Amino acid sequence: MTTATLEGTTREQLWDGRVIDCDVHANVPSIEALFPYMDPLWVEWTTERGWTGPAAVSMAYPPASARACRELWRPPDRPPASSLELLQEHILEPWRTERAVVSCYYGIDYLRHPDWAAALARAVNDWLVAEWLERDPRLVGSLVVPARDPAAMAAEIRRVGRHPQIVQVLLPVRNERLWGQRVWHPVLAAIAELDLVLGLHYGGTGEEAPSATGWASWYVEEYAAEWQSYAAQVTSLVAEGAFQRFPGLRVAVLEGGFTWVPAWCWRMNKEWKGLRREVPWLDRPPLDIVRDHFRFSVAPADIGPPEHLRRAIEWLESDDALMFATDYPHEYQDDLGVLIEALPEAARPKLMSESARAWYRL
Amino acid sequence: MSGRHVVARAADLADGERMIVEVGGRSIGIFNVGGEYYGLLNRCPHQGAEMCKGQIGGTVSSSVPGEYHYDAGRKLLMCPWHGWEFDIRTGQSYIDPTGTRLRAFGIDVEPGAKLVEGPFVAETIDVSVEDDYLVVNLRPRRSK
Questions:
Q1: How far apart are CA A329 and CA A89, in angstroms?
Q2: Measuring CA to CA, which residue among A97, A114, A119, A103 is closest to residue A38?
Q3: Contact, A196 vs A103, CB < 8 A?
Q4: Judging by beta carbons within 10 Å of its beta carbon (0-12, 13-18, 19+), is residue A14 exposed, middle or buried?
Q5: CB A323 within 8 A of CB A297
Q6: Chain B residue closest in CA terms to A270
Q7: Residue B44 region, left (φ>0) first, then alpha (ψ -120 to 50), else beta?
Q8: Residue A241 and residue B83: Cβ atoms within 8 Å?
């Protein structure tokens, strides 16, 4: 069973309560679709070069692969997930989704041109607001940022972050400097100030390897190893004291899995006991901080054998940690029914809607 | 038996120094911190390392990254194995103040003239009436 398509089951059989999907995608259909939202300077800049958009998206998601789009959801005449109508037909209607957090990962992080990157981020955000969010009240969205420039990032967050349907700032999981470091604190400050969620998402700058030590040979390695980058970012945000500096800061780890979290936190807790003098702002064990400040989407879920999954979830020692997601239009073979079964009764509505409702203030 | 053991001449333990003594079958560290004397069991409650051989440092705390509150007067003893910190005055654990504790012993400074009257136990040293002595009290220590 591949539950995201509800094949072989019904929405009611799987879950008869409310559904909030914390990770669905909007793809830019073509660079021309952004022209109405771009300053004429940048329209000309784009056309005179024959530029068709950042290369990052097709590198992170090979266009014809199921990783990019489940075959069933692939429209004949346009890129996957590139219109509101597709999202409504494939996800919002069959799932009777109450709210969905829609993110456009466009790979702006790849661009080195500081002004073009900022202009492109503005265009994507205004396009998302106008053509998606304001056309369907079920949707809330993530804003994107020129992720190499902290001042420009903070400015863009303050420009669009007050829109009532903007709930999240999408930060790519790979970047040149770990997100907890102080150079980014003005960005974290803007996110916290506007009461938005920091959404840590697959992708990132082209220079940074997906593994902790260099480039893999094969796509399968890169794709499967990405959790290492998530772990590095979670570690950085915790160790740098981001949550002591910004006590209201909330992070959503999107597409990073979650079964690695307890084992990583045990190690961090252990080291904190002996090395906390170095990071004295850590006034409690890292796992406690993670429980309070992080939520994890469940697509992909890394769920492994069902008989072991229950234990892995217990290790999180939290009913609040997980948030349901389809990650539309990407394909996974995870069985959501298995995940729901593995959760204690009280945690199931939290997984399917309530944790995301609280996190995104929906 | 009184539970009070004479272990050393006070003059033999200078400020900032420590000594490890065997008393009543226990290994105990005695520390001179600014003229005050403190005794701690030489066994880390975590995994049994010789606790009193660890480094001593001031207390570092912070409420915000980049701001350090350094209290040089409040000394912490760090376990030589895993670095767990304990308050040298009380044996209280810094990371787990209510659940983990290093056993502390009272150290008194007594004049030799008083000690020769008893009921103290001087196992290994001779007591003379002219000097002051460090006395370990093996009974449970009252918090000050």
A1: 12
A2: A119
A3: no
A4: middle
A5: yes
A6: B82
A7: beta
A8: no
Mutant choice from A236, A268, A276 vs B, greatest count of B C-beta within 10 A:
A276
**pLDDT 10s digits, A41-83:** 999 999 999 999 998 777 777 888 888 888 889 999 999 999 9
Would you give the DSSP letter of residue B121?
B
Could you give the 3-state DSSP secondary structure of residue A306? Answer: helix
Residue A8's SS3 state is coil
Name, in order, each residue with C-beta under 8 angstroms of A163's C-beta and a sequence gap of 6 or more: A129, A133
CATH number of B4-137: 2.102.10.10
The single-letter code of the amino acid at A296 is F
Which one, of A312, A294, A174, lies nearest residue A238 by Cα?
Answer: A294
pLDDT value for A1 = 42
pTM: 0.92
CA of A306: how far to CAs of A309, A332, A338, A340, B10, in Å?
5, 16, 6, 11, 66
Which residues of chain B make contact with A240, given a CB cutoff of 8 A? 65
Contact at 8 Å (CB) between A50 and A311? no
DSSP H helical ranges for B26-136: 112-115
Tell me the per-residue pLDDT of A74-111, one tens digit each, with 9 for 90 and over: 999 999 999 999 999 999 999 999 999 999 999 999 89
Among partner residues B62, B79, B82, which is closest to A280 by beta-carbon distance?
B62
d(Cα A120, Cα A46) in Å, to the nearest integer?
10
Task: Return d(Cα B80, Cα B36) in angstroms, integer.
Answer: 23
pLDDT tens digit sequence for A151-196: 999 999 999 999 999 999 999 999 889 999 999 999 999 999 999 9
> Domains in chain A, please, with CATH?
3-359 (3.20.20.140)
Query: A314 CB contacts (<8 Å, ≥6 apart)?
Result: none
pLDDT tens per residue across span A213-235? 888 888 888 888 888 999 999 99
Task: Return the domain boundaries, chain B.
Answer: 4-137
- Nearest residue to A143 via CA among A167, A173, A172: A167
